[in-house]
């Protein structure tokens, strides 16, 4: 298996993604993209650069069956402070998130819903925004929705996504600075996506004081995504060299050791079902061994959907991989039952300890 070095690619993309002097990052322009055409009833394209994604409807009692979205997590973290008491924010008020997509990614996942032009850090397909400008866009849209047809879609989640956020980890720190400047830290939950393929960037480009501030910030969660469950699927899905599959576990563990609230995804697509149960079982055992005994309970297996950008990259093999995800998900649930009690399995992601013991 060949492939590219995602760390080298990240280093080459980074200078075009960040303006250190002005503390700005490149945000993707959705205008004219297939992604914008895909926007339906669950996504509001606010401007060419920002959108609001609805995760749960206000009248829904149950969250997404994969428990992958941050609504329940945010509702448990957020509090509205008044003179008399703390008021917990109800989950139905965390049903949508506001985000702009950082332009630039060091993986080439074929199932990505982002157009290729918004993964290449091309200044012609984006615009630089500071953290404060990003936050102001959120506040403006939040105000506009108060007396509109979207009034029930409460915006209490600010999502940092991409592309790949961890190529420019300074933006996480700058966002926290901006939120605190506007005294919104008790009213706004920050959700950060990570592809686990940037090696030591978080530690290389953030100093200990910045990392401590992020770790001490109450209302933030990190969602890391495994791009495969073995060397073969990692390479097939991301295009990167198979050896970087192992780096995912190291980065995941290191982020937890930083004191961060880390959740994880696995998209279990595979072109081959050969020894599928053994391969998934080995991946789960490795999570338990190298991350934490409860790590599989903090991992969700969401469905890969065929969006317009994805459709352009489909091959017969990839269509088969999408079909095989259902078999893999079934096996995953079976393997969880072998290792955990029904009580453990009934927990929501936010109820599972980040670290056991």
Describe what this molecule looks like in 3D.
An 8-stranded mixed beta sheet has the order 3-4-7-9-10-11-12-13, sandwiched between helices. Strands 1-2-8 form a 3-stranded antiparallel beta sheet. Strands 5-6 form a two-stranded antiparallel ribbon. Helix 4 (131-145) packs across helix 5 (170-181) and helix 10 packs across helix 12 (316-339). The protein has 13 helices and 13 strands. The N and C termini lie far apart (40 Å). It has 357 residues and is of the alpha/beta class. The chain has one domain (6-351): Aldolase class I (TIM Barrel, Alpha-Beta Barrel).
Average pLDDT number: 90
Tell me the fraction of residues in β-strands, as a range: 15-25%
Strands side by side in the biggest sheet: 3-4-7-9-10-11-12-13
List the helices and strands in order. Answer: HEEHEEHEEEEHEHEHHEHHEHEHHH
Number of domains: 1
The gyration radius over C-alpha positions equals 20 Å
Query: Based on the structure given, which CATH architecture is correct?
Result: Alpha-Beta Barrel
Q: Helix tally?
A: 13
Kindly report the CATH topology.
Answer: TIM Barrel
Number of strands: 13
The rounded distance between the terminal residues' Cα atoms is 40 Å
Low-confidence stretches: 58-68
Sheet with the most strands? 8 strands, mixed
User: By helix and strand content, what is the structural category?
Assistant: alpha/beta
Name the shape in a single word: globular
**Highest-level CATH class:** Alpha Beta
Helical amount: 25-40%
State the fourth-level CATH superfamily.
Answer: Aldolase class I
């Amino acid at each position: 298996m060949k492939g590219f070095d995602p760390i080298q690619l990240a280093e080459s993309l980074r200078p075009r993604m960040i303006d250190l002097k002005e503390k700005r990052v490149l945000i993707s322009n959705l205008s004219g993209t297939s992604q914008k055409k895909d926007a339906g009833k669950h996504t509001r394209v606010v401007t060419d650069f920002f959108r609001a994604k609805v995760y749960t409807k206000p009248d829904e009692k149950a969250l997404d069956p994969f428990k992958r979205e941050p609504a329940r997590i945010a509702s448990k973290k957020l509090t509205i402070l008044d003179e008399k008491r703390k008021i917990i924010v109800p989950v139905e008020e965390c049903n949508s998130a506001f985000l702009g997509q950082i332009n630039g990614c060091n993986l080439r996942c074929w199932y990505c819903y982002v157009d290729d032009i918004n993964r290449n850090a091309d200044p012609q397909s984006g615009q630089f925004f500071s953290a404060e400008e990003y936050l102001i866009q959120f506040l403006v849209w939040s105000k506009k929705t108060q007396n509109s047809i979207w009034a029930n879609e409460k915006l209490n989640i600010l999502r940092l996504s991409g592309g790949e956020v961890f190529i420019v980890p300074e933006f996480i720190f700058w966002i926290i600075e901006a939120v605190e400047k506007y005294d919104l830290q008790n009213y706004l939950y920050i959700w950060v996506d990570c592809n686990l393929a940037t090696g030591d960037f978080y530690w290389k480009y953030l100093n200990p004081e910045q990392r401590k501030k992020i770790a001490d910030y109450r209302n933030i969660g990190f969602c890391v995504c495994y791009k495969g469950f073995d060397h073969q699927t990692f390479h097939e899905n991301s295009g990167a060299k198979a050896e970087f599959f192992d780096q995912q576990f190291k980065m995941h563990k290191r982020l937890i050791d930083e004191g961060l609230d880390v959740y994880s995804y696995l998209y279990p697509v595979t072109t081959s079902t050969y020894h599928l149960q053994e391969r998934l079982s080995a991946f789960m055992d490795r999570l338990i061994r190298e991350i934490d005994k409860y790590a599989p309970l903090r991992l969700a297996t969401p469905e890969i959907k065929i969006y317009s950008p994805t459709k352009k990259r489909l091959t017969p093999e990839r269509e088969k991989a999408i079909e095989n995800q259902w078999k893999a998900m079934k096996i995953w649930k079976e393997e969880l039952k072998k290792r955990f009690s029904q009580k453990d399995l009934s927990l929501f992601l936010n109820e599972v300890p980040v670290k056991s013991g």
